[in-house]
Amino acid sequence: MLTYTPPIAEQRFVLQNIVKVDELSGHNVFADVTSDLVDAILEGAGQFAAGEFAPLNRVGDEVGSKWSPEGVTTPPGFKEAYGAYVEGGWGTLTGPTEYGGQGLPLSLSSVVMEDLGSANMAFSLIMMLSPAAVEALKHHGTEEQRRTWMPKLVTGEWNGTMNLTEPQAGSDVGALKTRAVPQGDGTYRIKGQKIFITFGEHDLTDNIVHLVLARTPDAPEGTRGISLFLVPKFRLNDDGTPGEFNDVRCVSIEHKMGIHASPTCVMSYGDRDDCVGWLVGEEQGGMRAMFTMMNNARLNVGLQGVSIAERATQAATRYARERVQSAKAGSASRESVRIIEHADVRRMLLRMKALTQAARALAYYAAGLTDRGQLGDADAQARVDLLTPLVKAYGTDVGVEVTSLGVQVHGGMGYIEETGAAQHYRDARISPIYEGTNGIQAADLVGRKLGLEGGAVLASLLSDMRAGAAGEAPLMALIEDCEAVAGHLATSSTDDRMAAAYPFLTLLSVAVCGWLMALQLRAAEREDGDSRFLAMKKAAARFYLDQVVPETRGLRAAAMAPAESLFGLDEEAFSA
Amino acid sequence: MLTYTPPIAEQRFVLQNIVKVDELSGHNVFADVTSDLVDAILEGAGQFAAGEFAPLNRVGDEVGSKWSPEGVTTPPGFKEAYGAYVEGGWGTLTGPTEYGGQGLPLSLSSVVMEDLGSANMAFSLIMMLSPAAVEALKHHGTEEQRRTWMPKLVTGEWNGTMNLTEPQAGSDVGALKTRAVPQGDGTYRIKGQKIFITFGEHDLTDNIVHLVLARTPDAPEGTRGISLFLVPKFRLNDDGTPGEFNDVRCVSIEHKMGIHASPTCVMSYGDRDDCVGWLVGEEQGGMRAMFTMMNNARLNVGLQGVSIAERATQAATRYARERVQSAKAGSASRESVRIIEHADVRRMLLRMKALTQAARALAYYAAGLTDRGQLGDADAQARVDLLTPLVKAYGTDVGVEVTSLGVQVHGGMGYIEETGAAQHYRDARISPIYEGTNGIQAADLVGRKLGLEGGAVLASLLSDMRAGAAGEAPLMALIEDCEAVAGHLATSSTDDRMAAAYPFLTLLSVAVCGWLMALQLRAAEREDGDSRFLAMKKAAARFYLDQVVPETRGLRAAAMAPAESLFGLDEEAFSA
Lengths: 576, 576
What we know:
The first copy, chain A, has 576 residues and is α+β, with helices and mostly antiparallel strands. Chain A has a domain at 437-570. Chain A has 19 helices and 14 strands. In chain A, strands 3, 4, 5, 6, 7, 10, 11 and 12 form an eight-stranded mixed beta sheet that branches. The first copy, chain A, has a two-stranded antiparallel sheet with strand order 1-2. In chain A, strand 1 and strand 2 (71-73) form a beta hairpin. In chain A, helix 10 (343-374) runs antiparallel to helix 11.
């Protein structure tokens, strides 16, 4: 019952029609990306995720990772499955070829991350964060650091973590207090406490490479004074094997609503003043290096929304095709039918399909733009910068909505843990929070991204969207709404812009997704044959264009509302 | 931190301006309902819920009710708190005066149920279901049954349960198989298994009065053949005290996502062929009797949405007024502020306030109509019949949305169980499912309720709404949308009607709530002074009218979409 079937036809369709993966292989950097390779990865990753990771999803939730003074123990079976992941080389896809990676496009590894996240969202977090650490070292590390750390991070033999948050420094990273004191030998002594560190401690690898934001002595306040350090759990012996303990401890793990298999650690660095770190990048250049990691992570978190939505949709579909209950309303027969025949259940399922496909198209599209950015296409890079907050926020909002519909399709059984629908709902709820809350994403959109290149990045996107939306009246109207609201916000006060940020983010996300769904609809119409996959693609696209797009237009009023509507009353009134 | 403050000013305002509780006291049935009594109940119930029930909410979640072969044990402190509830007479409010009740209006007891649900949603379920059993006996029981069972149900010394569901009979009650065989002495032998029975077994009372739907021999198939039986856990001695065990067992309880303190029981009746039941109402008249219970329970479940939304809003507000993080965007000062000063946090809080107030107004309004129906006002009764699916579905949808916003306001801490925000989110998710899923409510609306009195009930409501919406352009437009869609659905095929049911239910709910918020806005403007409560009332009403109402208009396309959009593709395509 709790199985996962990789949506290979859908993934391939989006890679071909939205990412246009064939174009990538035209470039010598990605010359290996033949359609045979794409197929091999699609099928291999799907099989691996379904076979090795999906069966551990329930035990991961029920047993969870456990803390003891000796360390963190992952649930039964995780160690073996992680070993198979390393063994199969699944971690190496995007890693640089000089360090053992395959140098493949992010759009292709997105498929793998989607599969792993669908199969086991909590487990997949460790796989998601190591490539972010690789990116940070690739762009900001020294040659020696790369040689020393990257090969094992690329394979996943060691995992990487991101250490930003401290109790007083969450969204406000600049408030962090962890100290890094230079020792005169090129190393630093690290001391401080970090919270919410995903897989900060566990039993899956023989070393853990923490990337830690900290403040050097006399550094200025705020984000300007922050530097990034590489802080391993174990220092390395001369032969590169893990040696001396580096005074890095996991003090406790959090008791969370979901993703129980993923240990969320409170990490303590340098309790005994014996924690060594190495600077990555410039001193006081930590934020830049961290953004390299974060942008990658934000795209991946958006993809998690797709993953969990896909899994929930599959489960709900399976249940609705089996569960027999009630005769069809208005039918002459009083015979009970499977609930997929009831209109409202089918409405929920089609909505789940449409939202999941839309979020996937957006996430893959952004990954494909990143690949083009890597090839030197500055416009593509600028566009993905603009789209990153949309991928993260809308993708995760879709994850929450779709998993909630999944619970609802199951009826009373959806609330019982054994069906798994409840776990998806609980797991999904973290994704709008971490890697920058969705409110932070919305602020990033209206605060930094709308104004990129004086608004030209948005204008170019809207222009492409209009071209692709021809003939779709509600979508065209939504695009006009986006343009009007963006124009309004460009001249608004910061307060007004921030008040409108979230509704505007949703408006623009649905417009972009509507465009990508319209493109897919046309592509599906062009394809020969009338396979079931194509029939669903067309139906999901039509549902999105005919129902989700018009529904979203209702947000225009909120996106134009002034901050006065929020700040026009005394804060005390909220507690009255 | 995890406290609850009864929203007394708000509750009184809605009772006065929406329920118009003063009008009720003009009738001799409710002559006792003086404003002193209203105040005493508002304050007493609020204090009781906050003082006795709220402190048990966490332990209820963490420990939960536990099953053993000997029975079900509720969490520590529940027995004492339940005793205080009975002792304080809080169960007796609406009970008939002849049987120890106070005969007060449902609108007044709704305040008490709201308070109890906010304080401890899982616990409040036992308090919610006993009055439904009282209603069933009052309307359908014999005089002897009433004398025998009602006094202790009214006080809560014994609790009542509703037994509809069986594994194959959920939404389709007519598929149930539990048998009731007449013994020739006026009693029946009951045999069968029921699932999802809330508080079907526990340690809080010395008897449990199950109201059980079952099928007599030779009864026709489907709902027509169903009868209602009273089946106590213990038969009564001649002096009315609980005596011989009645062969009623709790076989197991479910492992649920939330409401852990509420045991959801699998009940087995007559394992040893020694379970006696008494017919309530006519043989094969069970559905009518059950609807008496269900309508009451549906209004109460809608109210649960209000309860949990209120609790989540209070928690989020408290957190947002304390948590310091980041400087305000665009501010000259780089000083970090409490997060309530950030626009997007304030947007979430105001949305939570507005949605909660709107759902409360709807729930109380429906309760007030029920009270008028009890006084013989047939129009009021017809209107509450129309509104019941809205109260249940929209109220619980609001509960889910608001508790989700509550998690989001807490940021990373919202996902950690210790803040309680996650519990509200998990608890709230049952309410769109039980007592008829929200999809069933939508089907009830378009299937039965729209056509009440040939559409005159809806027409009369829309006419009142239009009168109250004067000057509010988006609301007026939404009311027109409702009328247009209703007109369209009246002549649509059943399939089309069912496909549009849920979007239409939301459209109409928001229109009704918009109307009730507009009425409150006018009332607040008429009141002297500018207390913080009135300022928030006006701001919440404006937010609802200016943002929620326009947003909802976007659903019109979905409410007009034909079923072809759902059924136009092969079911197999959903699994492709």
